[in-house]
Amino acid sequence: MAGNIATGQTLHLEDFTTSKHGIRYKIIKSSDQPKAQLGDTVTVHYSGYLLKGLNEVGKKFDSSLDRGQTFQFNLGYQQVIQGWELSLADMKIGEERVVILPPQLGYGNRSVSIIPANSTLIFDITLIAAE
């Protein structure tokens, strides 16, 4: 569950699909459950990393797993970065994905905490519930 990538790992980008929004994703665990809907309160586990170079997993900057606590938010209410909104709106309950978000779908030209401006972000996300 949301622990399939690690700092220093090389991502094989040819294994990823690119969405119409420019999000690269790879389904790690598929599901036959329904998709999350706009307005749902979604519960996820995730780990977030910076992209280093063209395809290497860089420094981990956040992880619900490290805190031992899931993360919840309301889908479609702009409580999280746009790349998360778009990714989770396309995920099924129980599904796990690795997603690569271009800067404009992350924090853009703002630096946030240890995340430099214009960073490409990598997330390993598991959608646990959507209610």
Biggest β-sheet description: 7 strands, antiparallel
Rounded mean pLDDT score? 95
What share of residues are in beta strands?
Answer: 35-45%
Structural class: mainly beta
Q: Could you tell me how far the N terminus lies from the C terminus, measured between alpha carbons in angstroms?
A: 20 Å
> What gyration radius follows from the Cα positions, in whole Å?
14 Å
Would you identify the regions where 5 or more consecutive residues have pLDDT less than 50?
none
Tell me the series of helices and strands, N- to C-terminal. Answer: EEEEHEHEE
Shape: globular
| Helical stretch tally | 2
How many distinct beta strands?
Answer: 7
**In percent, how helical is the residue content?**
under 10%
Provide a compact summary of the structure.
The protein has 131 residues and is mainly beta. It has two helices and seven strands, in the order ββββαβαββ.
Q: Which descriptors would you attach to this protein?
A:
mainly beta, 2 helices, 9% helix
Written account of the structure:
There is one protein chain. This protein is mostly beta strands and 131 residues long. 9% of the residues lie in helices and 37% in strands. It contains two helices and seven strands, in the order E-E-E-E-H-E-H-E-E. It has helices at residues 64-67, 82-89; strands at 17-18, 24-29, 41-52, 56-63, 71-74, 96-101, 121-130. Strands 1, 2, 3, 4, 5, 6 and 7 form a seven-stranded antiparallel beta sheet that branches. A hairpin with a 3-residue loop joins strand 3 (41-52) and strand 4 (56-63). The radius of gyration is 14 Å and the shape is globular. It starts with 16 loop residues before the first strand and ends with a strand. The relative contact order is 0.30.
